Amino acid sequence: MKDLLVMKFGGTSMGSAERIRSAADICASVHKERPAAVIVSAMSKVTDMLLEALRHAEGGDERGVDEMLARLDARHRECCQQLLDPPAQADTQPVLDDILSEFERIARGVLMLGERPPRSVDEAIAVGERLSSTLMAAHLQSRGIDAFALNAREVVVTDAVFGNASPLIEQTREKAANFLAPALQARRLPIITGFNGSTLDGRPTTLGRGGSDFSASILASVLDAGELWIWSDVDGIMSADPRLVSDAKVLNEITYREAAELAYNGAKVLHPRTLAPLMEKDIPVWSKNSFNLDAPGTRIVPETREGPIGPRAVTSMVNVALVTVDPASSAISGTRIMARSLEALATANAEVLALTSSSYRQNFCFLIRTAELPSVIENLEAAFSIELTHGYLHPIDVDLDVGLIAIVGEGMKGHPGLAGRIFTAISAQDVNIIAIAQGSSELTIGVVVRKSGVEKAVRAVHAECRLGA
């Protein structure tokens, strides 16, 4: 359906009755003009509350579980009362109660077991999206719009990697044709839960980091949508974090690859996994602000109309760790050590943000997120237990006092002197460069510096590359 518009509303855009009402205004306006499908996140902070309840349950804290259940009930009950008149409340509140009862059943099961099975966690934390989709659909129905709530596990088919499932596209396409296409052709408005799906045999799963955005891109792809709009609380994708750079500007247009690189390196942009289904179909994406409808947003496309123009944005991350693997002897094959290290990283499901090596000593270092550090070290120490025990490898070194700066742009390739200008600008701020990483595509230049120098380096690069408004 090339005229189909898929829209996704994030947690802040669904964070209260007022925000749900504003999102519904957008949906109603679009629905008058063209077929649309809507994907929603849980209300802001609700997923955290669900996880907190499960943590209390795992720790045997029944009182903590009861308190979180009461908070979840109160928040959604209040929202229901603010969104709906009494007759509509009478129809909708029992549905909300049933969904919360399902979560309570799981939480009390965890309380009895003293552990959180991954499959149960996936079923439990998808409750937030089910609650918000129910509220949004009921509010739209109260306005005379033929909307209906749909649990994505009825449509999105995934593998069985609980907590970080991947879609099975052809099976999802088939289900979408059965469950969604007829409703869309009849100009009904589906309000679909983000973040979740199910295996072929019906076991609930979740899609991991950026899961609701991923849900939206999967459904846009299998439905052959014309566009995807991602609604959040920012005006679009920016040339830098405006909290660090006063003259950061909203980018009118960027490519899929630029967006993926920015997201990978810490910017609040669509996760690379989210972009993959869209890239296959050349479906354009808009990043828009539901709090500021006058802002035009940023368009993400295969190629920009203005063509490659050099650096487009600079982003940074500080919750990172630099891990060094250092052979004690040059007689040891550094290539084999590196290969085994990368295998350990893969086992830990860690993303390598930057990787550099030396030629003579054959040591190397890589940058990862600090959240992934415990699993990475555990897997590295298991992989090299013999080498570490006998001193063939120096103890694995971890440096937490580092940050990453990434300069991204399709047009950087072949620009003589650009890297030198960037390094000079950083050095002029008395910021020491610890490591540098640049791929052969020259799409991204990554620079590792001390944490204390990250903000100064970002501002210096932004100014040097003339990225400001």
How would you describe this structure to a colleague?
This protein is an alpha/beta fold. The protein contains 16 helices and 18 strands. Strands 3-4-2-1-7-9-10-8 form an eight-stranded mixed β-sheet, sandwiched between helices. The chain is globular. The mean pLDDT is 92.
Overall pLDDT:
92
**Distance from first to last alpha carbon:** 38 Å
Number of domains: 3
- Output the structural class: alpha/beta
- Could you tell me the number of beta strands? 18
Spatial strand sequence of the major β-sheet: 3-4-2-1-7-9-10-8
| Poorly predicted residue ranges | none
CATH superfamily of the largest domain: Acetylglutamate kinase-like
Strand percentage:
15-25%
Q: Helix count, per DSSP? A: 16
Measured as a percent range, the helix fraction is 40-55%
CATH architecture of the largest domain: 3-Layer(aba) Sandwich
Short description:
The protein folds into three domains: 5-233, Carbamate kinase; 323-398, VC0802-like; 402-464, 2-Layer Sandwich (VC0802-like), CATH 3.30.2130. The protein contains 16 helices and 18 strands. The protein has helices spanning 17-33, 46-58, 62-83, 86-113, 118-125, 127-142, 169-179, 181-185, 211-222, 256-264, 272-281, 334-347, 373-383, 385-389, 418-427, 454-464, and strands at 5-9, 36-40, 147-150, 189-193, 196-198, 204-206, 227-232, 253-255, 285-289, 298-301, 313-317, 320-325, 354-357, 364-369, 397-399, 402-408, 433-438, 444-450.
